[in-house]
Amino acid sequence: MIHRLKAFAPIALASISLLAIPAAYAEDVKLPPTMVVTAYDTGTAGFNIAVGIGKMMKDKYGTDVRVLPAGNDVARLAPLRAKRAAMSAMGSGSYFAQEGVFEFGTKEWGPQALQLVLSTVDCNAATLGVARDTGVTEIKQLKGKRVGFVVGSPALNQNALAILAFGDLKQSDVKIVEFSSYGAMWKGMINNDVDAAFATTITGPAKELETSPRGIIWPPLPPGDKAGWERVRKVGSFFFPHVATCGAGISKDKPIELGNYPYPIFVSYGSLAADDVYAITKAMITGYDAYKDSAPGASGLAADRQTKNWVVPVHPGAARALKEAGQWTDEQEAHNKGLLKRQQVLAAAWADYGKSNPPSDDKAFLEGWMKARAAALTKASMPNGFEQ
User: By C-alpha distance, which of 47, 61, 193 is closest to 131?
Assistant: First the structure.
């Protein structure tokens, strides 16, 4: 294993030590005195839910949880890799990080062994929000419009492209406007610097846009449009049709057929001890009633509402807690083992690529890695997911 894979080394957390946690638990979950969690910017769904969980942990277990806001996927994962945070409220970026693609296909990163703690699918959806004053009512009408991208956030950018694909649009069909962070992108929506941006429907900035002079609309993605959904899944395989009943301008009386995937997805590195992750997960399961109403989307973290057989594995410690809660099956265990094996294949491919004297040029390095990655997955009879 080369030095670039230091994230796979056993994590001996310093500022968030989870040491001396007993191997077995009843209802008496023992958490460390302090814990750090990263999330998107202040006011976003992931941040607000993380704060709600942190309050529960403080009230029930005496643990001070600090939630660090970060504007993109790389910034959210950096504290975890540096051993300054135990968990991150991620989105589909957790999948891109696992796969070592986009911003994670650089020399500084590579495939990351991220594993799920708990995730949420609730009444909201994750899609492109569009300023109502544009007159756009369908995704295909975004042709020629300004679409927001966030530097260092492959999740947001690729997700936006996946939704555009529903309308048979590619990146070249729209005008990309780059921003430094998720929050800055949505401020750009309000300031008329951009016409569309990706978000969950319950994010705070979407509500701000709804009440602004521009207004907001969520162009629908009807599940009956089979061709549209086939195009979506070619770009974002983790999306599925979902009827949203909450969010900016959305209610049970005014639902919209959109797309979704679990968000936030609370992840830790696979190298974090199973007992440590078990304690965190069990605290989130047993303390659910205390935070389920703390923020929109939090109720989707219930143990019996977990997305099964997704594209990123569940951490063995979290699987143990879910099994105790009666929410883990033999089928899911088999699927999870396959995903854990995939992470091993990707880690080995990255190590071998580093030993092959890869190009120093960033673009050439990424191109070479993607070929090496594809070859390793083909040899292991595993799908690529990112055909060139």
Answer: 193
Q: How far apart are CA 270 and CA 236, in angstroms?
A: 24
Task: Write down how long the chain is.
Answer: 388
- Report d(CA 386, CA 388) in Å as an integer: 6
Using only C-alpha atoms, what is the Rg of the chain? 20
Distance from the first to the final alpha carbon of the chain: 26
C-alpha–C-alpha distance, residues 88 and 97, integer Å: 13
The answer to whether the CB of 180 falls within 8 A of the CB of 150 is yes
Number of H-type helices and E-type strands within the chain: 12, 12
Q: If we measure between CA atoms, which residue out of 184, 228, 148, 212 comes closest to residue 75? A: 184
Summarised one tens digit per residue, pLDDT across range 213-254 is 999 999 999 999 999 999 999 898 889 999 999 999 999 999
The model's pLDDT over 246-282, given as tens digits with 9 standing for 90+, comes to 999 999 999 999 999 999 999 999 999 999 999 999 9
| CA nearest to 225, candidates 140, 147, 122 | 140
Report pTM.
0.81
E strands, 125-230, are 126-131, 146-150, 175-179, 196-200, 216-217
Task: State how far the Cα of 66 lies from the Cα of 227, in Å rounded to an integer.
Answer: 44
How far, in Å, CA of 89 to CA of 80, rounded? 11
Cα–Cα distance for residue pair 92/158, rounded to 1 Å: 9
Tokens read off for 82: 């540096």
CA neighbor of 274 nearest in space, from 314, 312, 315: 315
**Tokens matching residue 185:** 């992108």
Place of tokens 């992108």: 185
Q: In the numeric block, which tokens belong to residue 52?
A: 């709600």
For residue 250, what is the DSSP state? B
Provide, rounded to the nearest whole percent, the portion of the chain with pLDDT above 70. Answer: 92
